[in-house]
């Protein structure tokens, strides 16, 4: 089943042409001491039909629940056209568009993507994707430190709560370059005064999540201005779908954020157990040469016709090697394509409606939750489409009971520490209808009784 | 035409917008957007037509032979794509309890096993999202190893001059200085004398690709491993070329301590026009405990679980928000399962056969091999330096000519060592007929050099655009559309 | 290159063949095949590449504007395709008990309801597999009606000269003689005097399309219906043009007794390069009992069931082995449900708006309308007779020129009544911009007529082939490949 | 949701250009007495997301069973590539290839299909598809009557049992043209002697099914020769997958069948509740002008380059009108495409292996059935991949019980008459593994006990 076309005659002819007797001879430069004969540990191959049976059996181990978890990955309606288009061989099986003339499809899509993302963020430019939201944040931090010429500080202030896994990834990726990260706990509006008292020394950049990990909306204007006063860059960490409704980072404060990044998954990418998703990054034009990742530019061909090609490659590893802006090479092209198609199908009004409907559904859920005894909405306002509730026993046990009844009830905030172990982060989006919300309530009630 | 140029204010793909009863929101108005983002306002049909037609401007495996060295552009089985697109896999939030995702975890667990078998390593983490991130993980693990031992003076990573750019870039990201080591120009093997000269108590490790990016097997690999280990360094294996050696030789047996694989190369997951890939990292017992988390384990009761730092306290940490490029991993699992041990071995056998056949044929046709004394691995290099001197044409010209003939160009000008080079990797899924066609195309192009080198420099002529001005792109930096 | 020319003996897409332990069979050897059939021996990649590349040689809705009169080439929603491709629909043997296919039956039942509402008929059978089979069903029902009444002398079906070829062909298949009736050349309406002349006690019925294939609404429809009914005949409605009138007027109210719909036109199911379609037949209470079986009913308990001749003893019988083109019907159901009553009405409104806008624009640009005094329905006709006389060019030349501009040609030379005609149907899913582009293309082509009519006759030049020699094809009759 | 792009401004501009005030005026030629205002009977439209929810709810009413029914529709493995390719917009949304230069993809595929089908059948030519197997048979009969110049008889002898629905459809379609159909019951080998005694007068053609409706193999050679001696044409009714293994009709008897037709569904088309499938038709070259349907021929363009176009259109309704060979227009292009891809992926050996494996699985099932008390294999040999078993009670009740346990146990032969009410037509194909066969047996046993 190796998908090879070779007939025995082909092989004989080819060996003959090479001038050897057997395929084994092809490997005669490998020291015999380390040669192995095949992979006896692994079973023999099976055909597609058998594989189909096998995978059905395996996938039956997955149960699809009515989902109210967000926490960094959001369920939205994905138009059928999106993946039917992205699944076309020419998009699915093309390589990175190094040969520009043979890749105008991918290149124009990237150019369109850059335009859409930059505009959504209120930035001048964007790149062609990063691996995911967390790694995009890590790269944004490294970029900010390189880009901020006004300070030699490698300190980063995280203003407000961000996803614990983002913190983890950020740490894993940035730690070897002397980056120092200070997390400042603020109130739920992320009031700038909290920061003022916490961040004394000079720092290279402030990371500002909007909404924050708990679904709360940050007072972005004041912090942006404060950071800029301190010659720090502002890195906006945003959810692209909510940008249909919320103020674009480029308009935060007087001068706007400097770098914007985030998880692109909400833009047409299925939850899919966690990936593949994609990260996005946008920035003000002045920082473009510090941006990692691929960037496409418009140009002309020898006849003066418009075309697109990768540009500013001197930032990248294949040219600059150890001095590159990052080691990133293969990124998340197909998901970026998916997002471009998604944003085209939704348009500015559609995307705004998704954000509004998700918000309204979350508001409605809070309304319904107010009728549930023993449950307390910790943040009943200042939310976008995610909020925190408190349950009478451990979140973990409640979630378990809810899952048994087919509902993924939220994210267990115990990861934030013991004080949070009775709290759930709950998300509703436009995919829910009134029935779904009612079912959430019913199942939550039973779960609480059951525990 | 850009999709923005098709946009008409107020137009929309009506079926895609959620239905709002009212548009009131309970959000402070100072936080709301005042400007309309530049997303196109187009109908569903316009969108479908736009992207369908754009796609048609691409080369791809599904439409073209793609002998792109170092990239392993083999057939991406449609079955893997279809099976992995099952709702059961797609409609799963990453944070549901392990009990509800046993299917996904089983695939991942078995893939870990397959990777161990193929590489000869003892433990695997699947989370790195591409080769470069796999490299990062591996080098960070080397660092963690030295750090734990208090071996703080080791601040250098050795990288051969032929190495892929991600290698030195990775070393830098892990806080290392990069020391280059030369390759012997006649054999393509690493220069052992030069290696000995750079090895020292500062050496944290060495990053090697084997077969190397020069398309030859590093025959002195055991010596290199011994020398490095003796110096207290560790060996990193860049698995980009694993398609050459499955079932033939294992990095673990060569003496490597840690490595990554590019599943989007060797395990046939589609490249997607630039990702997603997957770059699992595998390690021997020395380094296993530093693997990035999460990894999948199987309990005594046969349940699959995700484990994190609580089980791997020495882990270098997480590298992705959730579990890397899960969907890519599932495709790779399906591919590996369909091929089995025998199929994976056969893939390497025939990838190597194809490369050697093509190398021989091009040689017979008068092209100059970079390493004529060596067997090709799954890829090989020709240099157009002689043609450059005689006819004034470049490897780039030849590459663009191939495009005009419907063949994707081989990798050009990499590795940097060989002047005017093309790195050619046919892969095992191409037929002898296709290889012969490639040789014919190369012969025809050589004929053009003789008869009309100027015309050759005008290639491509049959694609949506002729040769593009990359300098202009970098100069004007026109990166987003505006009215 | 044909796939057979890529074939190599012994090659195969290995993953697709069942695995045989042994190849023994318990079949008399005289019954076994001795020759190898001419199927290609190719790899999976070769197959994928071959058909992907072939597909790229087609025009289609997804890639081109397709103003093909009478064919309603509107956008085929990708959602309908996706939802109908659910395993739940696909993995169903037609002979499983109704209890296990309630989902499919519900879709069909609701589609029957939708069709009744749109057409004003009282009963529907969904089984006909295309328009022509729907016509067959309808005319056979007319025959069954007369036969049951013992009205055996009715052996003629009247068909206007503008009718689609399937109308007379259907009448013949149902054992009828065809009487043609003329259309008035100024208005496009049926010539009532001529009609009266052919109506007689031999008249079984009349087949009409309204709006007619001339792109105009038959204003005297009530008179025609009355005259026909008075003569003892019945009226058949060819529903190919239903896209013009949904929510505006119903065939049932016009006086028709039976009709078909082309769901692959009006209800947006994809044409598939020549099918599958679906041609449900709908009838008023006079003819309902003759409908082809099976049909779907809902029981008092809310269960859906398929009923056949036992419930419909007067049925004209079955027209397909199972239940017609079920999958097409499910797509049509989804389309109709997504549009709803308001959307279907809007579709007809805007299809008509587009046609009239385009007609006006072409008229202003100097093209000659076939019926300048009339409103267009969802389509209209221009005649290139004046251009033909002056420049010697034909409608065919113009059609081929449009292809070169990436626009599919309108229907040519149909209906036969109008010389050098193009029947143009933009459909409602095309934008004003697209229509304007069409007008610009036509103006540019007219300019070519003036400046370089010879060049125009060489079109197309930008497609995979230039103009093909159809006469040669018919003469050599090279219909299958052989070595 | 009408998928229309029109903005209010577009509409205003267009009306203005036409010179009218409102869209209603566009319909002013329709007599007002019959005008209606919209479709109030029907609910308003819904968006794709809501439709997705709705269709999920509806399709949940379908239960997928482990299938052992054949009876004209056969479950085979369908390679994933087949429908991923056929679903490409350029194949899915193209019209019939009248504009040849803009349809070379579809046209070449038809040409390849014609070649494959003709060769599988051992015929010279084939058309581009008919609606389905039953209607293809009806058209074959009409064709045979037109083509047989040696007799004026319009009588058709059906030699052997064919599918009752084929009989029904054949009747519905051919009755108005004076066709007379005589069904001759033969023994299970379809011995020619039975026919000799039954068919006295002259007749236009003999329909010869291979295998017959009960899965039995016909002695095709003798009947073919006998029919030809009587100046009748022979119409082979075949399953294309079994032709990978069974003798091609073109080699039946001394001169071979004259027309071959059948149901194309087994070639890559899913069961899909009964459709869309496709019929195929092939014949000897001399009869080509009597063949209905579309036919593609090879030709050249003005530069001498090979191309393909529809040919012999003078047979068809759009040219010949009431004198056409048939009224068929739209046929089953996409399914024909699917079959062409399927046959390419399987190749001669693969198709043969499918037939062999299906046969072997059926043989194995018989072996297992022999161990089941009270069940009798009515035809335990001379089968291809379908056979008849007798159960101790009504087939209907046994099937019901089996279905309740997730197995579609076969086709209830009660449709053939009371004598058959305790018999089932059972089919196994390559999709079954040993487990499936065992499950069939287990469930059958329980069902019998239960009844
Ligand atoms: C030799 C080598 N190493 C590393 C990489 C980096 O892999 P990725 O692009 O998946 O990050 C590549 C990919 O091009 C490669 O060819
Ligand atoms: C006016 C008219 N009637 C009937 C038909 C026949 O429909 P079908 O092709 O679905 O058989 C057509 C299709 O082209 C048509 O345009």
Total helical segments of chain A: 13
Mean pLDDT of chain A: 96
Number of strand segments of chain A: 15
Question: What gap, in angstroms, lies between the N and C termini of chain A?
Answer: 51 Å
What is the strand content of chain B?
5-15%
The strands making up the biggest β-sheet of chain A line up spatially as 2-8-7-6-5-3-4
What are the distinct ligands in this entry? pyridoxal-5'-phosphate
Tell me the greatest interface: A-B, 201 and 198 residues
Radius of gyration of chain A: 25 Å
Describe, in short, the structure shown.
Chain A is an alpha/beta fold and 451 residues long.
Architecture overview:
The complex is a heterotetramer, with two copies of chain A (451 residues) and two copies of chain B (483 residues). Chain A is an alpha/beta fold. Chain A contains 13 helices and 15 strands. The mean pLDDT of chain A is 96. Chain B is α/β, with parallel strands linked by helices and 483 residues long. Helix content of chain B is 37%, strand content 11%. Chain B contains 15 helices and 13 strands. In chain B, the strands form three sheets. A seven-stranded mixed β-sheet of chain B has the order 1-7-6-5-4-2-3, sandwiched between helices. A four-stranded antiparallel β-sheet of chain B has the order 10-11-13-12, with helices on one face. In chain B, strands 8-9 form a two-stranded antiparallel sheet. In chain B, helix 4 (102-119) packs parallel to helix 11 and helix 5 (131-148) packs across helix 6. At the A-B interface, helix 1, helix 2, helix 3, helix 4 and helix 5 of A face helix 1, helix 2, helix 3, helix 4 and helix 5 of B. Residues 70-71, 130-132, 164, 166, 209, 213, 238, 240, 262, 277, 279 of chain B line the site of one pyridoxal-5'-phosphate (PLP).
């Amino acid at each position: 089943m190796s998908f090879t076309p070779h007939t025995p005659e082909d092989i004989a002819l080819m060996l003959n042409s090479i001038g050897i007797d057997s395929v084994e001879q092809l490997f005669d430069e490998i020291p015999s001491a380390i040669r192995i004969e095949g992979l006896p540990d692994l079973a023999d191959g099976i055909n597609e039909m058998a594989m189909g049976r096998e995978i059905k059996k395996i996938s039956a181990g997955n149960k699809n629940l009515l989902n109210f978890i967000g926490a960094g990955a959001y369920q939205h309606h994905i138009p059928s056209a999106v993946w039917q288009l992205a699944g076309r061989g020419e998009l699915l099986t093309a390589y990175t568009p190094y040969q520009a003339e043979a890749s105008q499809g991918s290149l124009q899509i990237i150019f369109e993507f850059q335009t859409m993302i930059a505009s959504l963020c209120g930035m001048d430019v964007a790149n062609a994707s990063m691996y995911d939201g967390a790694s995009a944040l890590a790269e944004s931090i490294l970029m900010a430190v390189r880009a901020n010429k006004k300070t030699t500080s490698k300190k980063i202030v995280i203003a407000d709560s961000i996803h614990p896994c983002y913190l983890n990834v950020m740490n894993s990726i940035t730690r070897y370059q002397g980056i120092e990260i200070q997390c400042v706990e603020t109130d739920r509006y992320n009031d700038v005064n909290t920061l003022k008292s916490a961040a004394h020394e000079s720092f290279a950049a402030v990371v500002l999540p909007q909404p924050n990990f708990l679904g709360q909306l940050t007072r972005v204007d004041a912090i942006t201005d404060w950071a800029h006063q301190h010659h720090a860059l502002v890195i906006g960490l945003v959810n692209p779908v909510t940008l249909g409704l919320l103020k674009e980072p480029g308009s935060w404060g007087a001068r706007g954020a400097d770098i914007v990044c985030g998880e692109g998954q909400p833009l047409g990418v299925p939850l899919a157990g966690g990936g593949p998703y994609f990260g996005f990054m946008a920035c003000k034009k002045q920082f473009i040469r510090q941006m990692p990742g691929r960037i496409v530019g418009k140009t002309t061909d020898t006849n003066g016709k418009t075309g697109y090609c990768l540009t500013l490659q001197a930032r990248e590893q294949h040219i600059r090697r150890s001095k590159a802006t990052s080691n990133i090479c293969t990124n998340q092209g197909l998901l970026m394509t998916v997002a471009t198609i998604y944003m085209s199908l939704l348009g500015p009004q559609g995307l705004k409606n998704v954000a509004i409907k998700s918000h309204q559904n979350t508001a409605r859920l809070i309304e319904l939750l107010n009728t549930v005894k023993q449950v307390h909405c910790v943040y009943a306002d200042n939310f976008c489409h995610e909020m925190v509730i408190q349950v009478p026993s451990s979140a973990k046990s409640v979630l378990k009971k809810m899952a048994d009844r087919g509902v993924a009830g939220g994210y267990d905030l115990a990861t934030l520490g013991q004080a949070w172990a009775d709290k759930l982060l709950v998300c509703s989006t436009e995919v829910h209808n009134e029935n779904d919300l009612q079912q959430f309530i019913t199942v939550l009630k039973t779960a609480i009784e059951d525990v | 035409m850009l999709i923005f140029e098709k946009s008409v204010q107020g137009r929309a793909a009506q079926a895609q917008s959620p239905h709002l009863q009212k548009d009131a929101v309970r959000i402070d108005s100072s936080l709301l957007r005042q400007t309309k983002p530049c997303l196109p306002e187009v109908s569903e049909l316009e969108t479908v037509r736009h992207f369908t037609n754009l796609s048609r401007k691409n080369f791809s495996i599904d439409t073209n032979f793609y002998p792109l060295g170092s990239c392993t552009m083999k057939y991406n089985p449609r079955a893997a794509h279809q099976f992995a697109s099952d709702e059961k896999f797609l409609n799963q939030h990453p944070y549901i309890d392990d009990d509800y995702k046993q299917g996904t975890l089983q695939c991942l667990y078995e893939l870990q096993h397959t990777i161990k078998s193929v590489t000869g390593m003892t433990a695997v983490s699947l989370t790195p999202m591409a080769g470069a991130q796999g490299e990062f993980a591996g080098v960070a693990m080397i660092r963690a190893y030295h750090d734990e031992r208090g071996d703080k003076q080791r601040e250098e990573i050795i990288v051969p001059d032929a190495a892929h750019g991600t290698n030195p870039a990775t070393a830098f990201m892990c806080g290392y200085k990069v020391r280059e080591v030369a390759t012997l120009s006649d054999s393509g093997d690493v220069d052992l004398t030069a290696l000995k000269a750079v090895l020292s108590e500062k050496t944290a490790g060495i990053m090697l690709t084997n077969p190397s990016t020069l398309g030859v097997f590093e025959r002195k690999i055991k010596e290199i491993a011994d020398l490095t280990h003796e110096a207290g360094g560790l060996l990193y294996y860049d698995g980009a070329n694993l398609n050459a050696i499955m079932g033939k030789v294992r990095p673990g047996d060569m003496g490597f301590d840690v490595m990554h694989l590019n599943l989007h190369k060797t395990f046939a997951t589609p490249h997607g026009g630039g990702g997603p890939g997957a770059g699992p990292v595998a390690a021997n017992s020395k380094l296993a405990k530093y693997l990035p988390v999460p990894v999948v384990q199987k309990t005594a009761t046969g349940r699959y679980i995700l484990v994190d730092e609580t089980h791997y306290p020495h882990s270098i940490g997480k590298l992705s928000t959730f579990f890397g490029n899960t969907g890519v991993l599932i495709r790779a699992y399906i591919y590996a399962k369909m091929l089995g041990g025998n199929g994976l071995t056969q893939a390497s056998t025939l990838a190597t056969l194809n490369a050697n056949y093509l190398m021989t044929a091009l040689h017979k046709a008068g092209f100059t091999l970079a390493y004529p004394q060596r067997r090709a691995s799954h890829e090989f290099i020709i240099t157009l330096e002689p043609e450059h001197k005689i006819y004034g044409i470049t490897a780039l010209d030849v590459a663009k000519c191939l495009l005009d003939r419907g063949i994707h160009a081989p990798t050009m000008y990499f590795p940097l060592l060989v002047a005017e080079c093309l790195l050619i990797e046919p892969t095992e899924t191409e037929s002898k007929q296709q290889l012969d066609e490639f040789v014919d195309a190369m012969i025809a192009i050589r004929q053009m050099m003789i008869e009309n080198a100027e015309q050759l420099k005008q290639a491509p002529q049959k694609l949506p655009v002729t040769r593009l001005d990359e300098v202009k792109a970098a100069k004007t930096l026109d990166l987003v559309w505006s009215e």
